[in-house]
Amino acid sequence: MLGVRVRKAGAEKIKKYLARQKLMDINYRLISSNEFIYFPISNPDSRNRRFLSIQKAEIVDMKFDKTSVQPSYRERLRKALGKGYDDTVKSYDVIGDMALIDANNAVTARKTAKVIMGLNKNVKTVLSKGGPVSGRYRIRKYKYVAGKRKYDTVYNENGCSFKIDVRKSFISTRLAYERNRVSELAKDGENVAVMFAGAGPFAIEIAKRHKNARVLAIELNRQAYKYMLENIKLNREKNVDAQLGDVNMLAPKYPKFADRIIMPLPKSSYEFLGSVLKMAKNGCMVHYYAFGKSDSAFEDIISELKGFFRKNGRRIKIIFKRVVKTYSAGEIEVVIDFRIH
After folding, report:
1. pTM for this predicted structure
2. Which of 14, 72, 311, 320 is 20 to 30 A from 199, comparing alpha carbons?
3. Whole-number mean pLDDT of the chain?
4. What is the dihedral of CA 150, 152, 153, 159, to 10 degrees?
């Protein structure tokens, strides 16, 4: 079959070109010698041949060994669903031994579940999302699709374990990076307040990493609070003070308590900035999560934050900002770290 021979010094540029032009044949292994790399390719056209010639890459006949690469999830899903492929979300979340999908009908859900369980032997249950996160407790409905009929699991993240029932408490594996980032920024000896603590992932990860920190975790949802207590025991963390109740009601009990406040409630964090003022020490760091328009989120949210604190006789300094994830068409979730003065 055909291959492209190129000296190692120029191999990366040629590799990117072949991938961009969809010429690389991923069913075969590349070959490496002391001086050259040989890339297996499909038939190039005259334009491709001219480019490769200019780059001093030679097209040769070679015998390449087949790879053991298995078809990807999307390739298998496309084959399983046929014409229905475009009608389903082409990704899924794994939490513990459960996969969570977003399928538009029962047939699609069952076929998708079969593909997922065929690829991932650790997945024992597949559930389909029954709508968006909603309500006072930020939870969603789930429908059983395949495998063991259950809704709870143990999820491992950043050296911690969390027992969770996805119907009763919100948790997103896509926030794992944020939980690790914030727990790295926290310091021993700090007083940390985690608002909307859920089953405890932010609080427990910080407590585990900083044994001399005092972590206050507040949660309104009684079921999530129950799992947080269980997870504190599961992880053997004694420096988490779990409190059941509304943040705005409990905040006055902790005046000037916090060196650091975490606000992972992007839909309505703004409504709790008054409680931040009550709980924050001067110089307190706040990790603020919010939804915004894709093209103006940072500008809009920072302006809103500065306006609030200015009206209350305080000022803030923006320390860090990043896009956490895409939430919907035209809307993103962002985090803004700021210090209060």
Report:
1. 0.77
2. 320
3. 92
4. 170
